[in-house]
Every structure is written in C-alpha cells, then in structure tokens.
Amino acid sequence: MKPASLIVVGATVMMSLFPVATANAQILTVTDNLQLWLKADAGVVTNAAGAVTLWADQSPNANHAAPTADASAPLWIPNAQNGEPAVRFDGVDDYLDVVSSPSIAITGDISSFFVVKFDDFTTYRAVWGKTLVNYPAPTDYYVQPGSGIPTVFRGDGSQFQVGGVNGTGHLRSGTYSVVGFEMAGTTLTHYLNGQAAGSGEITAQPGDAGTPLKVGSRDDFGTRMKGEIAELLIYDVALSDNDRDSVINYLKVKYNIINLPPTITLASAPAGPGVNAGDLITLTATAADPDGSIARVDFLANGQPVAAATTNPYSMTA
Fold first, then answer.
1. Residue 21: its pLDDT value, please?
2. What backbone phi and psi angles, to 5 degrees, belong to 102?
3. Which of 142, 146, 196, 187 is nearest to 169 (CA)?
4. 273: cis peptide before it, omega within 30°?
C-alpha cells in the first residue's frame, strides 16, 4: 500500500508563570529573621586589582564575609546582570569565610535564596555551606556535576545525623537564576525562579560545629563555585508564602530574571517518515519547564492545531 506522509510542524507548550512582579519589589521588605544578607551593590571593599577584601553583611548581625588569603579573593564585577554588580568566583581557589556566630548557626527552620550564574557543572558547584569537613554542620548546599541538580544536606557534622534532598529542576549554566531552598520542620523544598522544584524529608537533627560559613565552597573545599553570586539571603525561619513570594519578586525584578523557556521533543510511533494509509499514528511530546510546570501541550499539523494534551505523557493519536 502506498505510504502516506504526515507533516508535523511541532507542538507548543502552555506553562505556568510566576506572578508578574512590580517595581516596588526592588526593595527588600522581608527583613525579620534575616541573619545574613550579602549583595554585591553594597558593602563590597576591593583592592586595586578588583579582588574582594570584604563583603559586608547588610543584616544587623555583622556576619561579614572575607577571604582568608589574597589568592582566595573573588573578583567584583561592576555590571554583571541588569546593570547590577556581582562577585565572581574562579572555581579553583576562590571563597569567602564568614566567622561562625549564633545568628548563622541555624539548626532549625531555614530559608535561603540567592541570585547566581554558574559557568558550568563539570564538578560539584557550591553556593554556600557550613560544614565540618564534608558533613553538614548544619547545612551544605551544592549543585551536582553534569546534571545541574541542586542538593541540600543537613546534619550535625557526623555520619550519624545527616540527611539530604535533591531538587527536581535542572539549573542552567550561563544564565542568572533565583535559586534557593527552605526547610520547615522536617520538610525541605527547593525553589527555582519562584517555583517549587522538589521536596523531601530530612529527619536528621542538625547541629552546628562552630566552623566558618563559607561562600563559594565548604570546609573540605570539595565543592567550588565557578561563576557569579549577586545576592545571598539567609533567614532562620521558614518563610510564609507571602514573604517568600516577596523575597523572590524582589530578586527577580532587581536582576531582570524572567522565567526560563520550556523544552519539548517529539516522537512518533510508528517512527516514519512514511506510514501506510489507514495506520494509526501516535505522537508523544516530552515537555519540561525548568522553573515552572506544564499546563498543556498543543499539537500542530501543517501549522494548524489538531489536538491538546493536559496530562503526562502528552500524546495524541491520529
């Protein structure tokens, strides 16, 4: 039987979007329980080469970040994103220490959000951690090599009290994003550009070991930031929904961070390119939104809509 040709132009995706932010969100209004606030547009002291010698905490707690040696000092970048500066870490030996203090020895609920751009994920990429060697004491955040999946571990600095949760959103290299996590009770949730991106339970009891909080690495230097950090906030509470939205809106507007576009691939069964007249053809779309969720996939044939799917797997048969 003579094959019949099927021309599929593509499929479109309707994704859920974070609420539109307003200009007044550029002022951080959620400052209660804020224990560490580093932002590259305030409190940064550099030497003649532009290396950061002090990154002053903008919270009332004076948890200032500083290099322990000239060689470990990251660079201040004056115009990194949306006209705002950032601090660049080389992925080799750059990091900053924040001397341990009760205000950052957070063993209970915690929220942390940051504006970052990773150059790559060739190895374990850090943002910040307070660890004893390679154990969280109480918190370790890094991004896994290859996948760009973020991970948070919490514990007491030993192998006996430790637990972790992976995110479900793949971070993108070369792109500024608002990233973070929150722990309320035993539930830890990752966030990417305002959307929840994976959650799980940690039943280990966190404890603090009195080690410095490191920005750009951790106590054993097994993780390294390669890229830029524009702003970092740490609260010693789990934020309410309204407060969390306010913090994320503030960061997204200030740094002009928009939702990342979805990705989609199409497959057909039978595979084609030719099929027999009368055969049923099933098209399946694999769709993902790195910082949101998929509401609907529209299928197009020759530029015209022919079907829509709202549940995964997104497919149609014709």
1. 34
2. -55, -30
3. 196
4. yes
Question: What sign has the CA pseudo-torsion 149, 150, 156, 157?
Answer: positive
Q: What is the pTM of this model?
A: 0.80
The rounded distance, in Å, linking the Cα atoms of 147 and 295 is 24
User: Could you give the percent of the chain with pLDDT greater than 90?
Assistant: 73
The secondary element (H helix, E strand) that includes residue 203 is none
- Alpha carbon 78 to its chain's center: 23
Tokens at 278, concatenated? 């009368």
Q: Alpha-carbon Rg of the chain, whole angstroms?
A: 23
- For residues 220 and 26, is the Cβ–Cβ distance under 8 A? no
CB 270 within 8 A of CB 279: yes
Whose tokens are 């830890």? That residue is 188
The amino acid that residue 317 corresponds to is T
Tokens of 245: 């939205």
Indicate the burial class of 69 (C-beta count within 10 angstroms; 0-12, 13-18, 19 or more): exposed
State which amino acid sits at residue 73: A
What are 266-298's pLDDT values in tens digits? 888 777 666 777 777 787 888 776 655 676 888
Task: Specify the DSSP class assigned to residue 91.
Answer: S
Two tokens at 277? Answer: 């007249």
Is the bond preceding 313 in cis, omega lying within 30 degrees of 0?
Answer: yes
